[in-house]
C-alpha cells in the first residue's frame, strides 16, 4: 500500500500560508494523477473541499469519461461537485487565441465564479515542482526577464498550489 505524504502536504500548506484549516477549498480536478492525488491528500488530511471539473469538449469520449470519473470521485469523498462543459474551440476562434489559452481563460474565470458563489476560501490547483520548472523554462524562452524566474508561486491571490513540494519521479 502506498503511503501518502500527508505530513509534508500539511506542513507545506502551513509554511506557505496557503489557506486556513477551517476554510473550504475548491479543488480543481482534471481526473489526472496529480489532481486525484491532491484530492486524496486533502481528504486524508481532514480539509473541507469541493471538486470542480471542466470538460473542454476537445477529446470526445475521453473527456466525458474524465468528467464521469471526477463526479464519481466527489461522490466517494462525499464532497460537493461542480462541473461545466465549455465550447473551447469556438471561444479560441472568437478570441483569436490558442486552444491552450482559451482553456486557461475559461477555466480560471469559471473557478473564480464558483469560488464567489459558494464562498470557497481558495482554489487548489495540482501543480507540482516539475510544472514550476517547466514554467521557468518557458518564461526564459519567452524572454520575460527576472520576473519570470520565480516559476509558479505556491499562492497567487485565491489560487493555491499545495503540491509544489512534490516532484514527479520519472
Task: Supply database-style keywords.
single chain; 170 residues; alpha/beta; Rossmann fold; 6-stranded mixed beta sheet; 48% helix; globular
Report on this structure.
This protein is α/β, with parallel strands linked by helices and 170 residues long. It has 2 domains: 101 residues, Rossmann fold, CATH 3.40.50.620; 30 residues, no CATH class. Helix content is 48%, strand content 15%. The chain is built from 6 helices and 6 strands. The protein has a 6-stranded mixed sheet with strand order 3-2-1-4-6-5, with helices on both faces. The longest helix is centred in the middle third of the chain and has 20 residues.
Short account of what is shown:
Helices cover 48% and strands 15% of the residues. By secondary structure, it is an alpha/beta fold.
Would you spell out the secondary-structure blueprint of this structure?
Layout: H1 6-15, E1 24-28, H2 33-44, E2 48-55, H3 60-77, E3 81-85, H4 88-95, H5 99-118, E4 122-124, H6 129-142, E5 155-156, E6 159-160
Parallel strand pairs: 1-2, 1-4, 2-3, 4-6
Antiparallel strand pairs: 5-6
Helix pairs in contact: 4-5
Amino acid at each position: 500500500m502506498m503511503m501518502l505524504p500527508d505530513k509534508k502536504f500539511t506542513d507545506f500548506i502551513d509554511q506557505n500560508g496557503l489557506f486556513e484549516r477551517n476554510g473550504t477549498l475548491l479543488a480543481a480536478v482534471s481526473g489526472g494523477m496529480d489532481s486525484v492525488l491532491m484530492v486524496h491528500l486533502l481528504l486524508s488530511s481532514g480539509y473541507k473541499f469541493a471538486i470542480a471539473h471542466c470538460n473542454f469538449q476537445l477529446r470526445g469520449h475521453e473527456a466525458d469519461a474524465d468528467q464521469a470519473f471526477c463526479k464519481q470521485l466527489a461522490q466517494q469523498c462525499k464532497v460537493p461537485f461542480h462541473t461545466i462543459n465549455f465550447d473551447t474551440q469556438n471561444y479560441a476562434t472568437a478570441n483569436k487565441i490558442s486552444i491552450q489559452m482559451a482553456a486557461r481563460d475559461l477555466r480560471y474565470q469559471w473557478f473564480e465564479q464558483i469560488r464567489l458563489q459558494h464562498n470557497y476560501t481558495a482554489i487548489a490547483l495540482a501543480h507540482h515542482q516539475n510544472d514550476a520548472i517547466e514554467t521557468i523554462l518557458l518564461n526564459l524562452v519567452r524572454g520575460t526577464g527576472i520576473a519570470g524566474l520565480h516559476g509558479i508561486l505556491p499562492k497567487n491571490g485565491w489560487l493555491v498550489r499545495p503540491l509544489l513540494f512534490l516532484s514527479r519521479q520519472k
